[in-house]
Amino acid sequence: MFGSEEEARRLLASMNRHVPARRPSLGQLLEMEEPHYQDKDGNRYDIRREEIELIASLLDPWDSDRIKLPIVVMTDTSEGGAWKVLGKLEVAVVSKIVGRKPEFEDRMRLFHPHMVLLMSRLPTATTTMFSP
Fold first, then answer.
1. What is the pLDDT of residue 19?
2. CA-CA distances (angstroms) from residue 77 to 38, 39, 80, 95?
3. What is the pLDDT of residue 2?
4. Neighbours of 98 (CB within 10 A)
5. Rounded to 10 degrees, what is the CA torsion of 12, 82, 115, 10?
6. Region label for 103, one of left (φ > 0), alpha (ψ between -120 and 50) or beta (otherwise)
7. Pairing of β 71-76 and β 126-129
8. Distance CA 91, CA 122 (A)
9. Could you state, in order of their start, the residue ranges of all structural domains in the chain?
10. What global pTM score does this model have?
11. CA count, 13 A, side-chain hemisphere, 75
12. Along the chain (132 residues), what's the average pLDDT of each consecutive run of 10 residues?
């Protein structure tokens, strides 16, 4: 498939250029006039205030400084065509958005119908990441 492990690593890196360099907390985003984050190349991505407020409404107020956005949804190589979300608060939010109980408190597998629903409700507050 790939000529070398290094080529595969470079391909994944190029596919994940949009992944945030640092994810701000929900609390920080709520305080920003124009909520946003930057990717590893310094590109700016805005997060819609309605999405931030929806996430805040799904969590206890004291969790606003503990959850980081955007929520990262990663490929799940253990299941063909599946995705996963990691983190207790992230899983709580995603579970409520897609209307499905998670397998574990801090890890949840998503399939295509869940991804469609999640991305339609939180298009700017989520991002995807490709992992081997």
1. 80
2. 27, 24, 6, 20
3. 52
4. 20
5. 0
6. alpha
7. parallel
8. 14
9. 5-129
10. 0.87
11. 10
12. 70 74 94 94 94 97 95 84 93 97 95 95 94 75
